[in-house]
Write a structure and sequence with these properties.
- With 88 residues, the chain is mainly α.
- It has one domain.
- It has 3 helices and no strands.
- The longest helix is centred in the middle third of the chain and has 19 residues.
- It is elongated and about 40 Å long.
- The model has no long low-confidence stretch (mean pLDDT 82).
């Protein structure tokens, strides 16, 4: 199973942080900085794979929202309220 780059995706970053807290094994370099060297990527590889597997098991819903991003846009309102949505 493939890995990914949590430094390029806030969603991967948050999923990985949640997994680390749940497992009690957060990688010390997780989310630190905007880039990483080969040593950090090696240390993070297994965790990135766990994040990929977790995301792959998630159900999703595609919403087409055709307005410009911003706090008062439908995009902003939807994004702000997604955390409070109850599971279906």
């Amino acid at each position: 199973m493939g890995g990914g780059n949590h430094r390029g995706s806030i969603f991967r970053l948050l999923v990985g942080a949640a997994l680390g807290r749940k497992q009690g094994s957060l990688v010390s370099s997780w989310g630190v900085g905007n880039s990483s060297d080969q040593e950090k990527r090696e240390a993070e590889r297994d965790h990135e794979r766990q994040v990929t597997a977790t995301i792959g098991e998630m159900p999703f819903l595609w919403l087409e929202i055709d307005d410009d991003p911003g706090p008062s846009s439908l995009r902003g309102v939807t994004h702000s309220n997604l955390g409070s949505a109850a599971p279906l």
